Amino acid sequence: MDALKAQDPAHIGTYALLARLGAGGMGMVYLGRSPGGRLVALKVIKDEIVDHPEALARFRREAETVRAVRSAYTANLIDASLAAPPYWLATEYVSGPTLSRAVADRGPLPPDTCRRLFAALAEGLASVHAYGVTHRDLKPQNVILAPQGPQLIDFGIARGVADTALTQTGVAPGTPGFTAPEVLIRNEVGDPADVFALGATIAYAATGRAPFGAGSAEGVSYRAVHEPIDVSGVEPELAALILACAAKDPAQRPTPAEVIVRCAVTSALVEDPYYQALTAGLAEAAPHDLSTAMAAGLVPPGHGTPTMPPGYVPTLAPQLPAHPLRPRSRRTPWLVTIAVAAVLGVVAAVSLRMLPGGKGGDGGGGQAQGVTKTPTAGQPQNPSGRTSPGPSSPGAAQPPPEYIEDNRVSRDYWALSKDPAEASHGIGACRTVGGEGNTPDEFQTGVSDSADDTLPRVTKKAKIVMRMKYADLKNAKPEPYYISVGVKPPHEIDSETGKPFTDVRMESKNIGYTSKPVDIYTKWKSGEFIELTYPDDFVKHAVGKTWNAIPVANDPGDWTVVFYHVKGSPTDYASIGCSGFRVK
């Protein structure tokens, strides 16, 4: 629970805002209080993506889903406004930590507690499925451990069995490590996919580890398709049930009802002593009114009590008007997600372009704004006009520099996996040294050949994508959050020839060729990817000169891609992630 910011409204509808509860892929979630004193969770869609048809349709579908599902394991819908901006929905406020936070703070749950949680969540899924709805993004972050029992949240990508209007070819819903193989491979979403996610969620609860390991999204998704889930050290009977739920073949997984039977619990989760201590110890006390919130420092000065419109009557999820989707432009970046890319052998993804309803790229083609090209790779040029403008007013956020300076030693290196199966799909791992140590949650990246996504290597050009999916941007304050991508060849490059030195081949120890810093926070608000192409969108800045990026064919081997958080100046940046690709 965080304090409201000055730019936050004092109220939404007739609900007084008391605090920030967090952020989702499409909007901000606030703690609100009704005129009658009821606490609610208010989810408000971001103004920046109101004109994005897919995002708006998804928000409307979430409201319809929450309205339709009335379960003890979900927060009920209380009110909504979906006819005109600002779009929002209000659900019951549920206090308690997420399962993700509980495990991070207290460690793995005891086997008996895991078994009771298993049964409770299975019962929750059975209840949701009975309404003809699949959740599609069950994971520890979307389970609240409430005193009355676990609650399933975030139905933003949930879908009824008959709802196929928003299905996009090549786009897999869910989160790497919790998304079922059939979803990754065929985008085949159904109740068994939720059971797979349930098994992965309990595996995390029982071990405190990512169910299919850490690392790049493509590597995690590859293991989810081809390797068993991690149940090392888990009590045997519990491990067997997790393995059954995480079976690669959806037909082999138990139903939620069968999971409940196999759990064989004799008492409810809410009676479990460990669970009771967990919810009591980690739950945040919610302010019950505006004065309490102000006393706790959650409401800034100047925020007042809302006035209720005359004749206002709360509505329970009004009938939603039809909003047919506009035809999607060929330049719309709703491309193959990282998870799907991994299974198909993709190592990355595409060029920076103008995004619907936003600003990114030059509005035509793939060259990033501010990148000056020269005809011949390796020839220096003066980086004229590349100074960072100052803030427009006192206290304004510092704009990003136009580039980052290659002025340091970088020992981040990516190498193709030695496992033949992983190597055949272009999967590798990074050896990373340094970094700022506060990478935002769920920072997703990927790399592939620009001409053929199925190749396990890059031939001429590399496509690079990145986004923050449902990210917790507490480390990104103040907004925005700028990222520059560095692409470094395996060896030090002779600036005169654009190729490795012929006499002595040295391992590259610089940051390589970099992209113009871009605000990933803005794109994150709508869950979109930022897309770049190497070498088109990359140059090198060092000692007052600028060089074009070299062709990948100039230096075959393992190339490294480093993601840098850029702060106030061309030299103020730190690595937050690493990936790479093989060139033959």
Low-confidence stretches: 156-171, 306-396, 471-478
* Rg over C-alpha atoms, rounded to the nearest angstrom: 25 Å
DSSP strand (E) fraction? Answer: 15-25%
**How many domain regions?**
3
Sum up the overall morphology in one term.
globular
Sheet of most strands = 6 strands, antiparallel
Question: What is the number of helical segments per DSSP (H or I, 4+ residues)?
Answer: 13
SSE class: alpha+beta
Could you give the order of strands across the largest sheet?
1-2-3-4-6-5
Number of strands: 24
Alpha-carbon distance between the two ends: 50 Å
Kindly summarize this structure in a few lines.
With 584 residues, the chain is of the alpha+beta class.
What would you note in describing this structure?
It is a single chain. The chain is α+β, with helices and mostly antiparallel strands. It folds into three domains: 11-93 and 288-295, Phosphorylase Kinase, domain 1, CATH 3.30.200.20; 99-280, Orthogonal Bundle (Transferase(Phosphotransferase), domain 1), CATH 1.10.510; 347-374 and 407-583, no CATH class. The protein has 13 helices and 24 strands. It has helices at residues 53-68, 99-106, 111-129, 181-186, 191-207, 217-226, 236-245, 256-263, 273-282, 290-295, 338-344, 420-423, 520-524; strands at residues 11-12, 15-23, 27-33, 39-45, 77-81, 88-92, 133-134, 143-146, 149-152, 159-160, 413-416, 428-431, 443-449, 462-468, 482-488, 493-494, 499-500, 513-514, 518-519, 530-534, 539-542, 545-548, 557-566, 573-583. The strands form eight sheets. Strands 1-2-3-4-6-5 form a six-stranded antiparallel sheet. Strands 15, 18, 19, 23 and 24 form a five-stranded antiparallel sheet that branches. A hairpin with a 6-residue loop joins strand 5 (77-81) and strand 6 (88-92). The radius of gyration is 25 Å and the shape is globular. The model is unreliable at 156-171, 306-396 and 471-478 (pLDDT under 50).
